Protein: 7,8-dihydroneopterin aldolase
Amino acid sequence: MDKVYIEGLSIQTTIGFFEWEKEIKQTLVIDLVMGWDTAKPAENDELAKTLDYADISIKIAEFANKNPVDLIETLAERLAKFLIDTYHIPWLKLKVAKPNAVHNAITVGVEIERGSQANNSNHG
Ligand SMILES: Nc1nc2c(c(=O)[nH]1)N=C([C@H](O)[C@@H](O)CO)CN2
Structure:
């Protein structure tokens, strides 16, 4: 299956279990890989037939800011569902990292995969 991806998308949002975290914005870094048949938009050079990574990047930041939660697991799960439902994405892998959460770690986070990678195009 072909993929459209967004790597290292840095967003500022309210996220965290502790009370002090609910008063501030913190950095999250998102990596997203989305299954998509990229041959179809390439046939006639049409943005409307692909996953617009620019539009989706904006929607991810908006979604996180509209849906403050305690756990990055919860954000990952809800964001994956939103993306699948909104863009009809058959399969995605989503990584949500919180780089400033553990001071002596480079980063921490979660990675989830949702949907099916079963081939749904004619391109093998
Ligand atoms: N697996 C997780 N562990 C922790 C989370 C989380 O979202 N998932 N969150 C916190 C706190 O919010 C932390 O980021 C504060 O530094 C702790 N562990």
Notes: The chain has a mean pLDDT of 96. Strands lie at 3-13, 26-35, 91-97, 109-115.
